[in-house]
Amino acid sequence: MSSFVLKFKTGRFVWTGLVTGYFLIFFTNFFQDAVPGQAVIPTIFAYLFVLWLALEYYFGSPFFQSGVVEPNPWLRALFAFFVYPYFAYLGADFIWWRWTQIPIPASLSGIIGLAVCGLGVYLRLATLFALLGIVQTKSGGAELLIPAKKFLGLKWQRFCRHPRYLAILIELFGSALVFNSYGGLILLLILGLPLVILQVRYEERVLRNQMKTDYERYCQTVPLLVPKLGPGQG
Q1: Residue 230 pLDDT more than 70?
Q2: How does pLDDT run across 205-216, given as a tens digit for each residue?
Q3: 229 occurs within a structural domain
Q4: What is the pLDDT, as a whole number, of residue 96?
Q5: DSSP one-letter string for the chain
Q6: Is residue 234 pLDDT above 50, yes or no?
Q7: Domain range holding 159?
Q8: Number of domains in the chain
Q9: 172 and 63 Cβ atoms separated by less than 8 Å
Q10: What are phi and psi of 101, to 5 degrees?
Q11: Domain presence at residue 80
């Protein structure tokens, strides 16, 4: 699993605050200069995105993986090669290129996108804090572990087996709407979704190996990525 930060660290907190402040100022000025008549929605999105990343960073969680198991370095790098150019494309298409803009008012898609992205951020942070609440330190060392039964009994784990990856997909979908880009939606479908599924499949193998029969039984009742909603959930 990832090396979550469970105790307050002054230096890390100060550094996170300084970097966060820098990026908030940067994106405020950037969007005001680049799209002065349409800066409000992209700026709110940037604030939401930066503050989310700041919390993930401070608590030692990988930005675009679950943190439940140690990420595969190759899959992590591969996803990074997708996601950062993805955001660059969304911004460039919205500001300069206008190649794949959805033919509806940008403010309408932007507001919807903010709501969707906010849902994804909420799910990422809710699942992060739930994990932090059950992580334990092995006696006699600094290694962290997640108790299987507590993990499988978490609220969000009853909706789907990988809610933190579901949250990433929701965030990326909302981001494309914020920037009114159907090109972003296409990229998410043909590249982003398969890359997320690759990471999910990798973590499935690790979790089955670590949690044995507990995870096998869990898999029989809880779906992989698409939530099962209904009377049985609660």
Answers
A1: no
A2: 999 999 999 999
A3: no
A4: 97
A5: ------S--HHHHHHHHHHHHHHHHHHHHHHHHH-TTS-HHHHHHHHHHHHHHHHHHHTT--SSS-SSSPPPHHHHHHHHHHHHHHHHHHHHIIIII-SSB-SS-HHHHHHHHHHHHHHHHHHHHHHHHHHHHH-EEPTTSS-EE--HHHHHTSTGGGT-S-HHHHHHHHHHHHHHHHTTBHHHHHHIIIIIHHHHHHHHHHHHHHHHHHHHHHHHHHHHHS-SSS---STT--
A6: no
A7: 65-221
A8: 1
A9: no
A10: -80, 135
A11: yes
Identify whether 28 is part of a domain: no
Q: What tokens appear for 40 in the block?
A: 């409000």
Determine the residue type at 70.
E
**E-strand spans in the chain?**
136-137, 144-145
Q: Tell whether the model's pLDDT for residue 143 goes beyond 90.
A: no
pLDDT tens for each residue of 146-184: 899 999 999 999 999 999 999 999 999 999 999 999 999
Distances in Å between the alpha carbon of 67 and those of 46, 117, 125, 162, 177? 23, 20, 12, 11, 27
Q: Looking at residue 78, which CATH number applies to its domain?
A: 1.20.120
* Residue tagged 């990343």 (tokens): 53
Of 114, 54, 92, nearest in space to 187 by CA: 92
Let me know if residue 179 belongs to a domain: yes
Q: State both tokens at 150.
A: 């507590």
Q: State the pLDDT at residue 137.
A: 80
Q: Which residues share a beta bridge with 137?
A: 144
Kindly report the pTM of this predicted structure. Answer: 0.95
Decide: helix, strand or coil at residue 123.
helix
Q: Distances from the Cα of 118 to the Cαs of 16, 77, 102, 111, 123, in angstroms?
A: 21, 25, 21, 11, 9
- Nearest Cα neighbor of 113 from 80, 87, 92 is 87
